[in-house]
Amino acid sequence: MPAEVAPEPASGTPTTSDPADSNSSDNLQYYGSRSRWQLLDFRELWRYRELLWMLAVRDIKVRYRQTLIGVAWVVLNPLAMGTIFVVFFSLLGQQPAPEGVPYTLILLCGLVLWQLFATIFAQASASLVANHYLIGKVYFPRLLLPLGVAIPSLVDFTIALLLPGALMVYYGVVPSWGIVLLPVFVLLTVAAALALGIWFSALNALYRDAGMLVPLLVQLGFFLSPVVYVTKGLIPETWRPVLALNPMVGAIEGFRWSLLGYGQPPVGSLLIGSAVTLLALLTGLFYFRRIERFLADRI
Q1: Which of 148, 168, 173, 250 is the most buried if burial means most Cβ atoms within 10 Å?
Q2: Distance of CA 23 to the CA centre of its chain
Q3: Could you give the percent of the chain with pLDDT greater than 70?
Q4: Is 151 exposed, middle or buried (0-12, 13-18, 19+ CB in 10 A)?
Q5: Tens digit of pLDDT for each residue in 173-193?
């Protein structure tokens, strides 16, 4: 009679075997079932932290392998986009931002932060499908795959941030005390991108149509977010609370305020956007946990 093969662990909380039992191995661990309402197992994620780092390093190496200018593409992308919009609005004789701060700086701040959001969202959405060969071979927390794309994107963001920094020196713009809150707006951007990325990674693993929606959503979000314009300079006041449902509205406005000292801190937009991000993250984690159990059979 063939020996029974132990099933893949349910990634619940491990319990070590009783040391008093002479028949048990010191390295043997037993996995109990996880509660359906447990969205995150931080101890499990911490136990696989080295795998998370390996996935991030692999993505960085693959991204810039066999490229001529390497990480310079991170700076060239917002620089090219910024040049196009500056020329476009100059030809129209209009500027979608109030006077006071050079429009080039306002534009580049929005482009750099949007590039961070779009990259994490797109890559996290495709992470499960792109790594399906790993999912079917070995057990690890599947959540590491969408989470792992955030680290290379943050490295790119740090490099791209040198571009508006250099222009701030050129224009003589000195940041105010609000720059200490800069990580808060970056964290909100990463959280919003991961919230959507976790949702769409699970959907894309079951229905490939979801992956086709991601580029469309990125394009729509670009124009629904104040990337190339300032909300107060273009959006009527009655529509601003509706627009603030997009978490990137508060993140971009706050990012500009903290880095350039431009305008006032967008408290209202931040509160609304943070609430929407939290809701999307919690529901995304719940749905991800539900499909994780049979993911290896369906992907």
Answers
A1: 250
A2: 47
A3: 84
A4: middle
A5: 888 888 999 999 999 999 999
